Amino acid sequence: ASRVLTVFFVYLIVGKLATKQAAIISSAIAAISPLWVNSLGIPSNPYFIPPITLLVILLLLLKKKAPVTYIVIGFAVGLNLQLHYLSIVLIPSVISYIFLSKVASKLTNVLFFFLGIIVALIPVFLFEARNEFFLTNQFLILLSTGSFTPRSIAVLAIPGSLILLFLAFSKLPKEGREFWFFCLATIVVNTVAFVLYPGGRQLHYLANS
After folding, report:
1. Number of H helices, E strands in the chain
2. pTM score > 0.70 for this model?
3. Which of 33, 132, 169, 179 measures 20 to 30 Å from 4, CA to CA?
4. In terms of Cα–Cα distance, which of 12, 182, 187, 193 is closest to 97?
5. Is residue 207 within 8 Å of residue 46, measured between CB atoms?
6. Where residue 109 falls among pLDDT bands split at 50, 70, 90?
7. Cβ 48 vs Cβ 1: under 8 Å
8. Containing H/E element for 135?
9. How far apart are CA 93 and CA 48, in angstroms?
10. If phi over 0 gives left and psi between -120 and 50 gives alpha, with beta otherwise, what is residue 41?
11. 110 class by beta-carbon count within 10 Å (0-12 exposed, 13-18 middle, 19+ buried)
12. CB of 70 within 8 A of CB of 113?
């Protein structure tokens, strides 16, 4: 189901951004992606991150967005956070999209976005409260025992990514700039988070990209 949804969303998104022919080719490539083929077997949580992230992109492409749209976007991001906490990279990307968009109610949209995230994470909050914050403790253990990226790399990666985003933003076309910056910011932030991640790295950690 995750693979089918991913291919379907790729077709819709590329169809909106380019042509029908490009959409067909892109969805075909997504269908036979080596990543999917190599991952065949018992599905795990990260399988569902790509289609949910693509749903967020599809919603951001809507020309007219009601406040409930940002609640749905936040809910989708919250679901991704349940699947893997590295999906937190989507939060700054969506916020940057909202503040770059040409609407008056930017702060309201941000609040609706976070409302959606909170609603999606209610089951996690309840689980944590009933189980002595098991997941939080596991995360803290990982941070305290994991092998972090050398500080020299971190010092270069973080400001370097910010400079890259700034330069890219200045070169992006004004029409649709907020959307393309969202895409670029998601890829850059996800990659930096992957590099700085403590412990063993898995390919699905880049699923949001």
Report:
1. 10, 0
2. yes
3. 179
4. 182
5. yes
6. very high
7. no
8. helix 134-145
9. 19
10. left
11. middle
12. yes
pLDDT digits (tens, 9 = 90+) for 136-169: 777 676 666 655 444 445 545 555 566 666 666 6
Which residues, 6 or more positions from 192, have their beta carbon under 8 angstroms from its beta carbon? 157, 158, 161
82: tokens are 């349940």
How long is the chain? Answer: 209
Using the structure block, give the residue that is written with the tokens 């998601």: 186
User: CA–CA distance from 5 to each of 52, 58, 91, 139, 205 (Å)?
Assistant: 9, 12, 22, 30, 19
Dig out the tokens for 130 from the structure: 């009933």
Question: What does the block give as tokens for 120?
Answer: 């999606």
- Residue range 57-100, pLDDT digits in tens: 999 988 888 889 999 999 999 999 888 777 888 998 899 889 88
Q: Taking a C-beta distance cutoff of 8 angstroms, is the pair 201, 194 a contact? A: yes
- What are the structure tokens assigned to 186, written together? 């998601």
Which residue type occupies 123? Answer: P
